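Sample intake sheet
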Amino acid sequence: MVTAENKFADFLGKKGRKFTPERQDILGAIFSLHKHFDVDGLYEMLRKRRKNISRATIYRAIPLLIESGLIKEALRGEPKITYEHIFGHEHHDHLVCVGCGKIIEFRNDEIEKLQEAVCKKHNFHPVEHKLGIKGYCKECWAKMRH
């Protein structure tokens, strides 16, 4: 069974890089989360675990983790870029509340089929897509209406 650790170690080896203890700690912290994360939040988590890893080390690890296929940039345009781990997870899209920041993940097969049809119609070969819809969650919408 391929694990995130194996996949990252193999990826780094092919690039002539080492799977350092710092990279192991960063990967472990990311995969202990079950939500989106940003560099500052990851840094704080590692500090609480008494790991002496700099923000610069995290920033250098992020592109490697993306290139290896373990994480992806989830949302851009927020105050901070957020990421999520994707290894072992199905593709999904996002609803983002502009009131409270809540992120709702969803998957819709009809949307996926429509995107495939559009690509086929234009003889386009997709490698990635992101769908994010900004609006208000039920709670924030109710507060605004009263």
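Comment: Helices lie at 4-14, 21-32, 39-48, 55-67, 109-121, 138-145. The first strand starts at residue 71 and ends at 75.
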